[in-house]
Design a protein that fits this description.
Elements (H helix, E strand, L loop, with lengths): L2 H40 L2 H35 L1 H33 L7 H30 L5 E3 L2 E3 L3 H5 L4 H29 L4 H36 L1 H8 L5 E2 L3 E8 L4 E8 L2 H7 L5 E2 L13 H30 L8 H9 L3 H15 L4 E3 L3 E2 L10 H28 L1 H4 L9
């Protein structure tokens, strides 16, 4: 493994783990706040128990997210110094604001965890809401920095120098809204389905059914709403990518040849050598319509992109297809859940629906990982789109491959610890949380 591949692999590994921790950290506080609100309004102690159980999970993922995020910040400086040398002054503002949001989140979480029966009940609930808002703001700010890499703005690049820097314009670049929207909804969908799936499985095992049923409903509603909205945000993102990063769109769709009435390709195996896709389902004119709103419009293909500027087509295409396929599957489950809520309430207790959510537990996070592969691999060979190539930003540091192996072991260990702690929390439910309702408590 050479230094360049090792550096990219280490960054990919770190991001791959951190994105899961951060998504859960962004979303779980909102689940916690909703269950807490229901307790305050209904005085049902079961909601208090759910809130306390979920708050322990929030604390676990806050700690692990802080650790993995700190590692990433060091890696940016150590592995990509040339990138940070030029990019740091331009897009440093969202990272600085993210640090502020992180500290607000930490303070609010401390108040929340130790505020039971100590603060005014609504102030205590409000601190939980602040945990969610600040966590979501942290995620959006980090995505804004990534959006700048895809759509650099806020400076003039003249003779290899970065001049007339405007950090505000850099942070609110043209790509930040579509990326932040898509990522935020994805976080809610992935976390909602994951949490609902765990509780659905416990209902199927007939363990602490009352506790897990109420928990399942809250998480499933969040996940289902997000899953239905996600294709809309995906359409916004795809339309923007078509205009700002046509090479990425062409790789996503394995669209080799510029043409009018371009078909939408579903599935298939890209044949890079012969510039075609084998075994794909094609919907005539649909790609043109989705990109330009006109079935007969022209869509730019890879044949208009210089070979040295083309992203890896196969990886980008497969990741995109996986993301879209899982997203559509989750939307189908979400629609079934809404039908159950509004028309077929008997479905809510049916095993088939609970099994659907159980089997869908990891799907959202697989889709999130696939989406980030599309975002990052689809931008290659650029680390800053059209400005700096990835190979020019890496540190020529000998022995970096050993660092990759070390960090791999660290992240795997961290994940195993998180799984163990969450498993212990679930096993503790019958001893601590699943007690009869007592409005006086």
């Amino acid at each position: 493994m050479d230094d360049f591949i090792a550096a990219r692999s280490q960054m990919a590994l770190s991001l791959g783990f951190h994105i899961i921790f951060s998504c859960i950290g962004m979303v779980m506080p909102f689940f916690m706040a909703v269950s807490h609100y229901l307790f305050l309004k209904t005085n049902e102690v079961m909601y208090r128990n759910i809130t306390k159980a979920w708050s322990k999970g929030v604390a676990i993922f806050f700690a692990t997210g802080a650790v993995s995020g700190t590692v990433l910040s060091f890696e940016l400086g150590l592995l990509w110094p040339k990138f940070m040398e030029h990019a740091g002054p331009i897009f440093g503002m969202p990272f600085s604001l993210e640090g502020t949001a992180f500290f607000i989140e930490a303070i609010a979480l401390g108040f929340y965890l130790y505020g039971w029966d100590r603060f005014n009940k609504w102030f205590h609930w409000f601190t939980g809401v602040i945990v969610g808002i600040s966590g979501l703001a942290s995620g959006i700010l980090v995505v804004a920095a990534n959006a700048w890499m895809n759509n650099p703005a806020g400076f003039d690049f003249i003779d290899g120098k970065y001049l007339n820097i405007d950090p505000i314009k850099a942070m609110f670049n043209d790509a930040w809204f579509s990326q932040a929207l898509h990522m935020s909804i994805a976080a809610f969908a992935a976390t909602g389905f994951a949490v609902a799936g765990v509780h659905a499985f416990m209902i199927l095992k007939k363990q602490n059914v009352a506790f897990h049923t109420k928990s399942f409903r809250i998480a499933a509603i969040f996940g289902a709403v997000a899953a239905v909205l996600q294709p809309l945000s995906g359409d916004i993102s795809a339309k923007f990518i078509a205009k700002s990063q046509p090479a990425k769109l062409a790789a996503m769709e394995a669209h080799f040849h510029t043409q009018k009435a371009a078909p939408l390709i579903i599935g298939g195996i890209p044949d890079i050598k012969n510039e075609k896709v084998d075994g794909a389902l094609r919907i005539p004119g649909m790609l043109s319509f989705m990109v330009n709103g006109d079935f007969d419009s022209e869509v730019k293909g890879l044949d208009q992109i210089p070979k040295e500027d083309q992203p890896p087509v196969a990886v980008t295409h497969y990741a995109f297809q996986l993301m879209v396929g899982l997203g559509m599957l989750m939307m189908g489950i979400a629609l079934a859940f809404f039908i159950a809520l509004w028309r077929k309430k008997s479905w809510l207790s049916q095993k088939w629906l609970l099994w659907l959510f159980t089997l869908a537990t990891p799907l959202g996070f697989i889709a999130v990982e696939a989406g980030w592969i599309v975002t990052e691999v689809g931008r290659q060979p650029w680390i800053i789109q059209g400005i700096m190539r990835t190979k020019d930003a890496v540190t020529p540091m000998p022995g970096i491959q050993y660092s990759f192996y070390l960090f791999s072991a660290v992240y795997v260990s961290l994940s195993l610890i998180v799984i163990f702690m969450l498993y212990r929390q679930i096993k503790m439910v019958p001893k601590i949380y699943d007690i009869p309702n007592n409005p006086k408590m």
